[in-house]
What we know:
Layout: H1 2-24, H2 30-50, H3 55-73, H4 79-82, H5 85-109
Transmembrane segments: 6-25, 45-69, 89-108
Keywords: Membrane, Transmembrane, Transmembrane helix
Amino acid sequence: MTVLVVWVLFAVGWGAVLLALRRGLHGPARGPALFAHVATPAGTVLFFALIGLGSLYATIALTAEWWALLVVTGFRPERLLSTGGLGRLAAWAAAVSAATGAATWLVFHM
């Protein structure tokens, strides 16, 4: 059941970041950013499978990254680099680390 919850949070987080990027990005950076975001799940899951970790670890990590990005930037991911500076980037990295560790523990110990 916990794996199903991770997959649902994964899909909802991915979609929320996609919508926020579509809404917030303009100009020449929009196309490459949207393409990179759309390609990220498949590329990451394939990479984790290639190195032998499986897709569950990748799914947990990406879910934590997307939700931490939304929380730290106030649902405006373009703020991470445009107006956030190193403080917001550090807050995002700390939130990702904490969320990944907590989610991994919950999935494998429940």
